[in-house]
Write a structure and sequence with these properties.
There is one protein chain. 42% of the residues lie in helices and 14% in strands. By secondary structure, it is α/β, with parallel strands linked by helices. The longest helix has 22 residues, at 300-321.
Length: 326
Amino acid sequence: MLKTRATEKLGIRYPIIGGTMMWISSPEFVAAISEAGGLGILASAMFDTKEGFAQAIDTIQAKTDKPFAVNLNLFPTIRPVNNQEFLEIILEKGVKVVETSGHAAPTELSQGFKDGNLTWIHKCVGVRYALKAQSMGADFITVVGYENGGATGVLDIGTLVLVPTVVDAVDTPVIGGGGVSDGRGLAAILALGAEAAIIGTALLLTQECPIHDYLKQHLLKATELDTALVMRTIKNTHRVLNNDAAKQCAALEAEGKGLEELMPVITGERSRKMYQEGDPNLGIVSCGQGVGMIHAIPSVAERLASMAEQAERTIARLHNSVVVAS
């Protein structure tokens, strides 16, 4: 049994956090992750209205009595998001855990987290930002290395360096990720000093993930070489599946095109349509290098259980095989 400060504080069975994924982290999927023993996180930015957001929380609570979190998005968005209103709903509904992520710490929200007795997880890109969140009272700091899918931040630091660097710099418990696709990765994250691993790509390839099966089958064939970095020229670097949309985006960036010219390619609406219809080349899909290590599409429960079991075996193997000279 893997017990850490994260499993104890968050009340979860496994030290595994389901990464927030736009248009994918739906109420049903979040509930499946939490019910399976991890921490599911609802993407609040998916909702246009307070009513829709509140209904999403109701749906999760109807499907599981296990802990889950809500992500409040601090990145710039095309659609205005009122995080203060969302926070009020979080408190009204009795949600216990909130995650924030973005270009800056949530200065205007953090006191509300404390007043509401919420467990606050802040996702950031490195030591400087982790220290800021710690000073504001964050309960956990999440960092992910350069191998990860989605936003890679601005520092380009790999998981093996980033996670222990942040662990050494802060007193706050750390959640680490970036390339974690199986139990060996989970064991490695714990060995680096983190209290839990955050995963995203490994959850895309599960039965409950709400993306089209054609796209899942396409991802299943991908290797560790089949990702690309895009949107660096607009200071929003993302690691994505190297499909036609990603190649088109890279070509436009090479021509010096700006956000206005890139938007028709990178827009979330194209990605959303791709998730629904299955065309693997239609839009941008966040995807980490660890996709090449995934060779099956199990249930979420099977994925998390197998990761935890493999992590335990890995730790036991190291304990039994590595001799420390006296």
